[in-house]
Amino acid sequence: MSVNTMILFIPLLPLLGFTLIALTQRRITRGTAAWVGCTTVFVSFIFSIILFVKLLNGAEPFTASFFTWISAGNFKSDFSLLVDPLSSLMLLIITGVGFLIHVYSVGYMWEDEGVNRFFSYLNLFVFFMLMLVMGSNYLLMYVGWEGVGLCSYLLIGFWFKNQSYNDAANKAFIMNRVGDLGLILGVILIFINFGSISYAEVFPKVTEGSTALTLITILLFVGAMGKSAQIPLYTWLPDAMAGPTPVSALIHAATMVTAGVYMVARNNILYSLSPVSMELVLIIGLATALFAATIALAQNDIKKVLAYSTVSQLGLMFVALGVGAYASGIFHMATHAFFKALLFLGAGSVIHALHHEQDIRQMGGLKKYIPVTFFTFLIGVLAISGIPPFAGFFSKDDILAKAFEHNQVAWAIAALASLLTSFYMFRLLFLTFYGKTRASEHTLHHVHESPASMTLPLIVLAVLSTIGGLMGVPELFGGGNWIAKFTAPVFARSHKLLPEHQLSHSTEYILMGLIITFTLVVIGMAYRRYISQAHVPASEGATLSPLHKTIYHKYYVDEIYNAIIVKPLYAIGKLFDIVIEKSGIDRLVNLVSESLNDWSVLSARLQTGHVGFYIFIMVIGVVLVVAYSFFR
Amino acid sequence: MWLIRFLDNMLTVALIIVPIAAAVLIMALSRQVAKNIALFATLAELVISLVALYQFNSAMGTQYVFTKSWISSLGIAFSVGMDGISLLLVLLTTVLMPGIILSTFNDNSKPASFYSLMLLMQGALVGVFVAQDGFLFYLFWEIALIPIYFICLNWGGENRGKITLKFFIYTLTGSLLMLVALIFLYSKTPGTHTFALSALYEAGRSLDLPHQTFVFACMFLAFAIKMPVFPLHTWQPDTYTVAPVQGTLLLSAIMLKMGVYGVIRWLIPMVPLAVKEWGMTALILSVIGIIYASCIAIVQKDFKRLIAYSSIAHVGLISAGTLTLTTIGLQGAMIQMISHGVVVFGLFYIVEIVFARTQTREIGRLGGIRNVAPALSTSFFIILLSSVALPFTSGFVGEFLLINSLVQYQLWVGGIAGLTIILGAVYMFRTFQKTMSGETNTLTSQITDLATHEKLVLYPIVLLILLLGVFPKPLLDISATAVNNLLSIYSDLSASVK
């Protein structure tokens, strides 16, 4: 099989899977649908590995063009796919983690009447996600970008009988569209300024910073804010937890939400030449990382905690990008995909065991009932908290070190966010699995470990979360930082522009020691509060301290958006409809026609039928004509 | 050989004559026979237009030309022909007409005259798109108004008399202004005067700015009313809502393109100085219309009225892109006209299907249709995706090119027009949620899924939407040469200024 065919089939197979399942979903069995759904993604995964190995062995990036998609005037967009180190890594994550989540879904969704539809949507998602990272020009990336948004909409509102789920789906789509507008305007400006939208043609032309470039990068970043749930466009992500849990793991943790990180990394040269945009990325990333972490401290829904944690971790990735450490951002994205998918799937296993209970106040002591879930979840928590040698430690430490080089304040904020992360993750772990159980007798009676189709993906992801850090072991520990070297060609020009001043080893050791010590202290605090004191978060309706209340209500951001955007939009619609349209413009139109009526009445009066009157008018007319010709 | 050439030359004429002849033929027949013949005639028309497409040379300008002197004393000729722009709109007409006839398939209340009027309408629409003579263009333009007037008047809903009259007077006022402009241009043609398109171009271009402005104002008003462009649109929501579904489909899917076509063929190349001077004003009005109509659509409670306002918004974008006078803008306008025709056809048809089953168009009373009619809701959803311009649907290609041209024109104008990306999603997804998602209620639980003839109409539309979204290039290629020819006058103009 030629490389081009293989490249084409990577996205095409999931698309075929989608088409097949979607068209026959009412006739085929759930087993067939599941088999098709899993197999297509698995074969794409195999192809991705083959291409990855070729790149690893030093092959040049592959570009495969198939046909011209749109051409008008001097604008042209080819259907052309690119596999380079960056997209190759993305391919492995999307198809690899994607496959595991497909397998997990077989167990998780088996009892659902819409399971066939579920697999068709999942496959469609994988197709669009692959388009996003494989597109060799901005417009194809935009295709994937919008397409994953569509699938996210479909899957958040998967249980469409529930209108509040549909509200969440609509909110996700519309908020993403705000970002998409920024992105598409950025793409158009790229076309106007560089005469092309193909990466291969644009990047070499970007040689110096300019106002236009700053505007372009900011607009692109607006797109990233939407898709990757950064301030101010993050509020859709926690609501997106309305979707089935495998969706939260695949779309809202491991892949789709990292699209913004991919996009900025892909455009690294544009950002490296726009210091203003870089600062913006850094500031937004820091603010989001900290802000979302504080909200997560007070949430009681197991998925909501993980959702805010995702927002916060994405913020951390943008911190890396904002300081020019692109490879570190990608590294953290990869490890995050492992441990966050693991945590979500673990949460799904808990929810599955407890028959759709998501409130951690109703859990506790589950450790002995669902040991595999507990053990793998524990690994996920250790990984995200940055405990060595789990995956999260290396990637997070990498980002913190790079942030320190750039700016100590940035480092302090990012470090604070990670400490908060350790606290709320251990809070979650303790409240769910330790202590006395708070679930009802009845629920406990039915608690059961999940089937193998669910636990196997958990185990694989747990292994990846344990050893995933090996991808980027720093020089400090005698590692080669493989991921940085592998992606170096993509970031080569940026590295020349932004020379790194390497921290001394002693500084690195001190920082690392500091973070680890504090993390352990924080975990100790969580232990004391939730295990020793067996503290349980206040139940619904209990009076909270003002600060706690504000955090519990997510700083009232949803309410504020509702008051300053949603309501005014409807008010404007009403204003236009009732005041301007009906009593304004249309009234005016009717007035014109009525006044014509009046004029005709006036002229009708001239026709009185009196011959004398007519002769009188005629005489006046003749006099006027004569007078006119006389005086002319 | 000469026979083939003769037939080629007659293609355009045949496209006009076939429906009109069929219209006359079926007038006296029984309703069932009339319906069948009407369907057959529109299918025959479709075949002829496909032959024209097959033999069309996209590298050349106007083809299939047929000219015969008609009222020679006034310099009027029966002159028709098609370039890529005409061909695309003719195809839009011929592709959609069988669907419009099919949409009446389980409705036996309409007499033969109804079908006769629809066929007459088709003949006139094609005539408008292919006319190469000013008088002929005007004639077809007016003829097209008559059938739709009677269709709406005789088979419309509540209040139809008043609303239809308003629509009639509104558009007639516009057409009369156009006639004034055409006669004025005619009087400026050399010698014994002629209405030939090329001569009118010459006459228009030789005018000074004030006179060009006069022509521009008259013509643009006529075209803007037809589209309609803000603030000349208030006839549209009422008329669309009150018209029988076939009338709405004719008006929204095909007839409004007469307005955009008028701007492209009879305005932009005719009075370039005035277009340069006043285009900005017209463009800004169009952009205001996008936002204005979108905001109104958000608060509509009537399904059909909501689609009517969304149509104003989309046409505003087409009109604005056209007035940027760039290849990208005009090509975007062309493909978006096709896409809009297909999409709005699908949306109004869905409204009708739901209405026929529930006797209501109130969005608040619907809901849960997804549970009982999956084929219906899935078709609606895909059409909706094209309406909100999701990539790989037909709506994206046009919308992207149009916004692209507007950003090139002025960044802020493009940015404001681009808000349609957000607002469109707001009102369309809200509509889908309120009508299709959720639990069924007593009204919607009885809904049956698509019947065969409904599938025959909707599935091709869905397919077309996806096909044009993934492979838009053949379509863009058809009009590319024609658009470049049209705009060449502007590049000459700016060259001479430099």
Overview of the molecule:
The complex is a heterodimer of chains A (632) and B (498). Chain A is mainly α and 632 residues long. In chain A, 74% of the residues lie in helices and 3% in strands. Chain A has helices at residues 3-24, 30-56, 85-108, 115-134, 138-156, 163-194, 199-205, 211-227, 236-239, 245-254, 259-266, 268-272, 275-296, 302-322, 326-353, 371-385, 391-406, 408-433, 441-446, 452-467, 482-497, 505-532, 546-552, 557-606, 611-631, and strands at residues 62-72, 75-83. In chain A, helix 1 packs antiparallel against helix 4. In chain B, strands 1-2 form a two-stranded antiparallel ribbon. Chain B has helices at 2-26, 31-55, 84-102, 112-130, 134-155, 160-187, 197-206, 209-226, 235-242, 245-267, 272-298, 303-322, 327-358, 369-372, 374-387, 394-409, 411-418, 420-435, 452-470, 473-497, and strands spanning 63-71, 76-82. The model of chain B has no long low-confidence stretch (mean pLDDT 91). Chain B is globular. Chain B contains 20 helices and 2 strands. Classes of the chains: A mainly alpha (632), B mainly alpha (498). At the A-B interface, strand 1, helix 5, helix 6 and helix 24 of A face helix 6, helix 11, helix 13, helix 16 and helix 17 of B.
Please give the structural blueprint.
The complex is a heterodimer of chains A (632) and B (498).
Chain A: H1 3-24, H2 30-56, E1 62-72, E2 75-83, H3 85-108, H4 115-134, H5 138-156, H6 163-194, H7 199-205, H8 211-227, H9 236-239, H10 245-254, H11 259-266, H12 268-272, H13 275-296, H14 302-322, H15 326-353, H16 371-385, H17 391-406, H18 408-433, H19 441-446, H20 452-467, H21 482-497, H22 505-532, H23 546-552, H24 557-606, H25 611-631
Antiparallel strand pairs in A: 1-2
Helix pairs in contact in A: 1-2, 1-4, 2-3, 2-4, 3-4, 3-10, 3-15, 3-20, 4-5, 5-6, 6-8, 8-11, 8-13, 10-15, 13-14, 13-18, 14-15, 14-17, 14-18, 15-16, 15-17, 15-20, 15-21, 16-18, 16-20, 17-18, 18-22
Chain B: H1 2-26, H2 31-55, E1 63-71, E2 76-82, H3 84-102, H4 112-130, H5 134-155, H6 160-187, H7 197-206, H8 209-226, H9 235-242, H10 245-267, H11 272-298, H12 303-322, H13 327-358, H14 369-372, H15 374-387, H16 394-409, H17 411-418, H18 420-435, H19 452-470, H20 473-497
Antiparallel strand pairs in B: 1-2
